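FORM 7B: Structural annotation worksheet

SECTION A. Query
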Amino acid sequence: MAERFSWYCAMLGTLMLMLSSCELLTSTSIIIDHHHQNYKRGCDEIYVVREGETLQTIGEKCGDPYIVEENPHIHDPDDVFPGLVIKINPFAATHHKDHYY
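SECTION B. Predicted structure
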């Protein structure tokens, strides 16, 4: 009888361990999918600067490290303001061969 009880306890423990692993995997997958969707979303080609944004934050957000080069109407990179319209090229890093991540 004690042997049977011990076997049932071992099976129950194994089942609980397996279920907890599946739940962790599902939660991790959801988090990864959420970050992947945010990354893929990117920005439109025409972007309107919002309050508190800088060219650096926009470049990071949109995946375009060459905003200044692609927007000759921006004479001073530190002089961006809400409402300024800029061109975004999220695939700019692939067009410039001298830039590596």
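SECTION C. Observations
The chain has four helices and two strands. Residues 94-101 have pLDDT under 50 and may be disordered.

SECTION D. Sign-off
Analyst initials: ____
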